[in-house]
Each structure stands twice: as C-alpha cells, then as structure tokens.
C-alpha cells in the first residue's frame, strides 16, 4: 500500500494529475513512472527499492492493460537492483581456517585407512584453496610457502 501511495504523491507533485489519468495513457505512464523510479533511486536509500517495486506492481494491478507498456520503469528498477551493493557476511577468521586445515591434515596423517586418509587430505586441500580465494591478490603474493600444507610431510597446518 505504501508503494502505490508513494507513486500517487510523486505523480501529483510532478505532473499535477491524478494517477489514474496517467495510467490511462500507456506512453505517458511509461515516461512518468520511469522518472519516478529514477527520482527515488537518486533521493532514497536502497531500502526503498522494494517500495518502488510494490508501487509499480500496484499500478499494474490497478490497470492490468498497462502491464506490457512499462518498459522504462522496470528497466530503471533492474539497473537500480544491479547497482545495489550486497551485504555479505564476513568470512571466517584466518585462525579458524588454519585450525580447520590443521585438523584435516592431522586426521589425514593419523588414520590408517587409505580411503579415509585421502578424504581428509582432500578436505584439507580444499580448505586451503578456499582460504586462498578469500585473500586479495596483494595478500596472496605475501603468503609464504610455510603457510601451505602441500608437500610438508607432517601435519602441515598453515600458520599465520
């Protein structure tokens, strides 16, 4: 409901017309609603993206015949979504990665079953690759060979 009310306010402020009059003309609706999405992108936070999307969907619900004519606003909304920065959770701390690699290498060395040994060593190698993928290029260049468990012959846990 807040989305359609926001569209109504925008249309009234910018054109002086009622929303239903704008929606009755598909080309005018395309232009005005495209400007609406652009305006909200420039003046509102990323959190208002869903409100704008609900507003566009509300317009299509009010006038179902307009559905295929709103190319510009939906394209503007798609661009806004692509520019939105994603909130990623932080990666595991380096110390935890190292402990996981060390435990996997230790289990690989300690077990007598060849199949289990290979599974543990494979897991350790994958953990190391995952760890290296988290680092930037500058940090990877600074990684010393003693950090890696490849070819060490002992438990070979990486150390920081």
Show the helix and strand layout.
Elements: H1 2-15, H2 19-23, H3 26-43, H4 49-62, H5 71-83, H6 94-110, H7 114-134, H8 137-141
Helix pairs in contact: 1-4, 3-5, 4-5, 6-7
Task: Fill in the keyword field for this structure.
160 residues; mainly alpha; 2 domains; 67% helix
Q: Order of helices and strands, N to C?
A: HHHHHHHH
* Helical residues, percent: 55-70%
Shape: rod-shaped
Taking the sheet with the most strands, its summary is:
none
Tell me what the structure shows.
67% of the residues lie in helices and 0% in strands. The protein has 160 residues and is mostly helical. The protein folds into two domains: 2-83, no CATH class; 94-147, no CATH class. Helix 1 packs across helix 4 and helix 3 (26-43) runs parallel beside helix 5 (71-83). The longest helix is centred in the last third of the chain and has 21 residues, at 114-134. The chain starts with a helix and ends in a 19-residue tail after the last helix. Residues 151-160 have low confidence and may be disordered.
What would a concise description of this structure say?
This protein is mainly alpha-helical and 160 residues long.
């Amino acid at each position: 409901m807040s989305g359609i009310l926001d569209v109504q306010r925008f249309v009234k402020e910018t054109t002086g017309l009622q929303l239903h009059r704008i929606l009755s003309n598909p080309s005018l609706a395309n232009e005005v609603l495209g400007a609406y999405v652009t305006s909200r992108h420039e003046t509102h936070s990323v959190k208002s993206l869903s409100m704008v999307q609900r507003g566009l969907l509300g317009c299509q619900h009010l006038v179902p015949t307009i559905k295929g004519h709103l190319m510009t606003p939906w394209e503007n909304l798609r661009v806004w979504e692509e520019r939105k920065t994603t909130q990623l959770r932080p990666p595991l701390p380096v110390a935890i990665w190292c402990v996981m690699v060390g435990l996997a290498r230790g289990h690989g060395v300690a077990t007598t079953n060849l199949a289990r040994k290979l599974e543990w060593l494979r897991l350790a190698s994958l953990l190391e690759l995952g760890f290296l993928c988290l680092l930037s290029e500058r940090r990877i260049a600074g990684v010393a060979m003693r950090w890696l468990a490849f070819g060490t012959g002992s438990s070979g846990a990486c150390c920081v």
